[in-house]
Each structure stands twice: as C-alpha cells, then as structure tokens.
C-alpha cells in the first residue's frame, strides 16, 4: 500500500483493501463442533462470524470442555477472523411473566455470556423477550431488571462479553420492535460499555420502518439515532424480508431478493457512520447461499466512496482480543485516535478502558487522542509498562 | 552516546561492563534485574517480555543518554525480550564514573525511568496459568503458556 496516495487517486486497489477490512459475514452453522463455524466462515470470505454456542432450542447445555475452548480459540487464531458474535438461545425470555421461566431464562443467559467470554467472543445478541399478553409495561420492567442484574453479576465474575439487544419484528407479543421501546429499555438499564444494540434490517422493516429509498433510509436511521443512538450499534443483521413493510412477521430472505431490495443494503453499507459496525447475514440456505450473500454484501460495500483503513496493534492483555493482536478498522476520512478507540470499544467491550489505560503510538511517536489518522497507518496501543 | 539495546539474546554482563569500564573510572555500578521465582504471591515458571520496539528502542536510548549527560557518567543498558528463565537477567544497567555517587544515581534513574516509561511488558507464566503485567496491575491471560 502506498501511504502517500492522496484522495485524488482513490484507486480500485484502495477499494479492495477497504472492502476486505470491512467486517462482513454470516451466521455460520456449528454442526460437528463450534470451531467449524470459523473454518467454514473463513472459506466463504467472512471477516465476521455469528454462531450459537449452545443448542438454540434447548435449555441446558453441557458446559464447554477445556479442550473445546482451546480448540475454538486456536482455530480463531488460525482463521484470523477479526469479529465474532454469539446469538443466544430462542427459548430465553428475560421478560417472562412466569417466575420459573424468568429464573430459568436468566440463568441460561448468564450461561450464554459465560460461554462467550470463555471462547473469546465479545458480544452476545439477544432478542428482548415477550410479554405474552400479561402486561407490556411490567414485562419491560422485568427485562430491564434482568439485564441490569445479569450485567452486574457477570461483571463481578470478570466476564467481559457484552449484550447486544436486537431490534425485533414485533411478531406476536415480542418486545423491542419499536425504537421508542428499545430506547426506554437502554435508558432503564443505564449506560454500560457491555450493553449495545443489534439492528436487524428484516426486523426493522417488518416492524414498519422503511429503508428502501435514500429518503426513507435517512428518516429511519435518523429516528433510530434519536431514540436508540447509532453510538449503541454493535452489530447489524443484514437480512432481506419475505414479508412486506409493517407485516410484523419475521421471515428472512436473501440480500436484495425480498421486499426490501438491493438499494437499502447499498445505502446501509455505504453509510459512513456505520462503516466500522460488523455486518452479519442470517439469510436462508446457509450451505449454498451464505457464500453468495456475503460476496454480495462485500460488493455493495466496495461500491461506495470509502474511508480509511487503520490497523490497531494491541499489546498486553488486549493482544488476546483479536487474532494476532491486530485488527483493521474502517473509519471515515479525517478520523482521529479517539474515533479509533471508540470503534475498537464497539467491536469488543473489553476495550472500553483502552483510552484511559493506554498510550497510543504511530511508528516511533506517541500521539494524543486528537491526532489525525491516515490511510494504511498502524496505531499501537501501549498499556502501562512492566519492563525491568 | 550511551549503549542501549533490546533483544532476545542472553545478556552478557561482563561484555556490557567492558563497553564502559576504563582505567579513569573509580566506580562501576551494575544493576541486574533477575527473574525471580515468586511474584505477587505466585510461583513463576518463566517470564516472557514483549516490547513495542519502534518506541522502546528510541526511549531506552534517550533515557541512557540523559543519564550520561546529567551525571557525567558512561552508561550501557540491555533489556531482553522473549522468554527469560528463572535466575536469568531481564535487564542489566552498567554505569561507570570517577566517584560512586554519580554512578549510583545515574543507574537508579535509568532503571526507574525505564520501568515507568519504556513500552516493554512482562507476561508471567505460572504452572497454573499466565498473567499479563501492566504497571501495577496483573491480569489473567486466556492462554496458559
Ligand atoms: Zn437477526
Ligand atoms: Zn429474524
């Protein structure tokens, strides 16, 4: 890479580099072992992989063995996939009206976070549960209490995996389909570096938020930003929808092949505010079509005017958070060190103390938070020294 | 200019001393930082040093040069990276001067400033797991060796 390439010569080569730095992938199957999600994801070009760490239709999971954890971590290192995210079990309802179901859900969700932490997966995506016609307000309060307690308890145990609340389609009595309610839930739990949001395009669309044209996309994202906050976005599920706008029915379709259509995905993937947010397809026919959908997303992403790719090199305990201790981050042109630190924290909440704990360096110079980053530069994050 | 070096090779203290000792010097002050068995209540199997070299090399040189000019001494410092076993030196500082006071002060300044500022980190590998040391903090590593 020529570091001195000016903006006037934004070449196709730069597009390729930026395109591969973009965190794009799919929900990969774990049949035959958790690590298979990584090897098959790598094979089809994923730079982000989502997986179930247990059986999503069962309450209890045999706990992970040390061997499984070791194997998963070493496969992660080998494949070098920068971003991993877990999806929780479908049975979990952190807002359940029945006391026994609620308790079982909370304990299962703590298990989800523990497993993610053990495997080195920074985020667990969860749906927000259902009120089951037993009072929506009370259900929201129970959900808030569940999340607050679980975050506190797991934090006390040293768990760094975070919770990403997924926007839902509003099917049945599901909570969290309206941006308003999701915003209330976030506020209710309170700011926490381990709490974020996952936006699912199919769900948002089914819930009644249009994103099909530049105007509707802009309005929907603006509404999302006001009520939920773009700064809380940790993952985007890019799914097209088999059902129409406001259908409140959750049926995923291949990218561009459903009711949402290709333009929305192009807008989303070229929105510079969302550039560093990992994108995951949860589209049908994983075996045959994930490869196609991932390639399509990557092509859409590469079509726009790109930002800059900055490589973060992490030392000390942070070096364990990404394969090889480094990760490429895509940032808008003009981004500074503080923007990089914020983007890294979005990728892994274990990095939330990065800017207070670390000095930053580019080549052999220490730089402060306002230092402007250049295309292709490497930024080293240096924790307090312990030489001698 | 002082001698400052960071590398994987075992530190040869005599060779380092030979770089700065002359017949003019009445005082030779050598500090050896060894890997010890017990650390923060844990049994250590060995240490692993890691550095961010672009800055570590420059800073170590600057610290060594500053010590030389402030106390009018000659100084050589070497720090290891990679695996360092028990009883081996992780760092050696040698200062020579006409009288001892300057040698002690310059040596102390060099090791203290190095520990505080130069981006080098140790990872303590213990029989039951490894720990990253960052300043005064020690954090469990996810990989045991
Ligand atoms: Zn989803
Ligand atoms: Zn869905």
The helical percent of chain A reads 25-40%
The CATH class of chain B: Alpha Beta
Strand content of chain A: 15-25%
CATH topology of the largest domain in chain A: TIM Barrel
Tally of DSSP β-strands of chain B: 11
Please trace the helix and strand order of chain B, writing H or E for each element.
EHEEEEHEEEHEEE
User: Could you report the average pLDDT of chain A, rounded to the nearest whole number?
Assistant: 91
Provide structural commentary.
The complex is a heterodimer of chains A (388) and B (145). Helix content of chain A is 37%, strand content 17%. In chain A, helix 4 links the parallel strand 3 (83-87) and strand 4 (123-126). In chain A, 51% of the residues are buried. Chain A has 2 domains: 12-303, Alpha-Beta Barrel (TIM Barrel); 308-382, Ubiquitin-like (UB roll) (Roll), CATH 3.10.20. Chain A has an 8-stranded parallel barrel. In chain A, strands 12-11-15-13-14 form a 5-stranded mixed sheet. In chain A, helix 5 (136-156) packs across helix 6 (179-189). With 388 residues, chain A is of the alpha/beta class. In chain B, 31% of the residues lie in helices and 41% in strands. Chain B is an alpha+beta fold and 145 residues long. Chain B has helices at 13-20, 53-71, 100-117; strands at 3-7, 27-34, 38-39, 42-43, 46-51, 74-80, 82-85, 89-97, 120-126, 129-134, 137-140. Chain B has a single domain, classed as Alpha-Beta Complex (Aldehyde Oxidoreductase, domain 3), CATH 3.90.1170.40. In chain B, helix 2 packs antiparallel against helix 3 (100-117). Chain B has 3 helices and 11 strands, in the order E-H-E-E-E-E-H-E-E-E-H-E-E-E. Classes of the chains: A alpha/beta (388), B alpha+beta (145). Chains A and B meet through loops of A and strand 5, helix 2, helix 3, strand 9 and strand 10 of B. Bound molecules: zinc ion (2 copies). One zinc ion (ZN) binds next to loops of chain A. One zinc ion binds next to helix 7 of chain A.
């Amino acid at each position: 890479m020529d570091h001195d390439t000016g903006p006037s010569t934004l070449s196709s080569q730069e597009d390729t580099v930026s395109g591969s730095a973009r965190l794009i992938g799919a929900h990969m199957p774990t049949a035959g072992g958790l690590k298979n999600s990584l090897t098959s994801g790598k094979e089809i070009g994923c730079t982000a992989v989502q997986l179930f760490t247990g059986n999503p239709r069962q309450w209890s999971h045999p706990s992970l063995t040390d061997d499984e954890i070791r194997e998963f971590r070493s496969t992660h290192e080998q494949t070098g996939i920068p971003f991993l995210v877990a999806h929780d079990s479908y049975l979990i309802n952190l807002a359940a009206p029945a006391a026994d179901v609620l308790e079982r859900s909370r304990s299962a969700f703590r298990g989800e976070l523990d497993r993610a932490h053990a495997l080195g997966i920074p985020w667990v995506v969860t749906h927000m549960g259902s009120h089951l016609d037993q009072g929506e307000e009370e259900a929201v309060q129970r959900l808030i209490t569940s999340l607050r307690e679980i975050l506190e308890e797991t934090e006390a145990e040293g768990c760094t995996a975070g919770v990403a609340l997924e926007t839902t389609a509003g099917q049945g009595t599901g909570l969290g389909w309206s941006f308003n309610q999701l915003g209330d839930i976030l506020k209710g739990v309170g700011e926490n570096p381990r709490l974020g949001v996952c936006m699912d395009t199919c769900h948002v669309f089914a819930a009644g938020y249009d994103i099909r044209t530049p105007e509707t996309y802009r309005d929907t994202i603006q509404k999302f930003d006001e009520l939920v906050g773009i700064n809380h976005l940790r993952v985007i599920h890019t799914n097209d929808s088999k059902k129409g706008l406001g259908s409140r029915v959750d049926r995923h379709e291949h990218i561009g092949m459903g009711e949402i259509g290709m333009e929305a995905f192009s807008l989303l993937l070229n929105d510079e505010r969302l550039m560093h947010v990992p994108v995951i397809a949860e589209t049908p026919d994983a075996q045959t079509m994930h490869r196609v959908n991932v390639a399509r997303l990557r092509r859409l992403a590469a079509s726009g005017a790109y930002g800059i790719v900055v490589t973060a090199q992490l030392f000390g305990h942070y070096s364990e958070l990404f394969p090889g201790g480094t990760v490429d981050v895509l940032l808008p042109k003009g981004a500074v060190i503080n923007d990089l630190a914020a983007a890294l924290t979005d990728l892994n909440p274990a990095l939330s103390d990065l800017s207070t704990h670390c000095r930053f360096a580019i080549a052999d110079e220490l730089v402060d938070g306002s230092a402007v980053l250049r295309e292709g530069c490497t930024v080293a994050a240096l924790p307090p020294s312990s030489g001698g | 200019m002082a001698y400052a070096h960071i590398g994987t090779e075992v530190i040869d203290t005599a060779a380092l001393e030979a770089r700065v000792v002359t017949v003019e010097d009445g005082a030779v002050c050598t500090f050896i930082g060894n890997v010890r068995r017990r650390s923060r209540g844990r049994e250590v199997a060995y240490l692993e040093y890691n550095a961010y070299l672009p800055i570590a090399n420059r800073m170590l040189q600057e610290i060594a040069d500053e010590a030389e000019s402030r106390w009018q001494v000659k100084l050589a410092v070497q720090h290891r990276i990679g695996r360092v076993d028990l009883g081996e030196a992780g760092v050696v500082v040698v200062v020579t001067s006409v009288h001892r006071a300057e040698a002690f002060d310059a040596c102390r300044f060099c090791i203290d400033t190095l520990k505080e500022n130069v981006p080098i980190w140790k990872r303590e590998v213990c029989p039951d797991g490894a720990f990253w040391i960052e300043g005064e903090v020690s954090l469990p590593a996810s990989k045991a060796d």
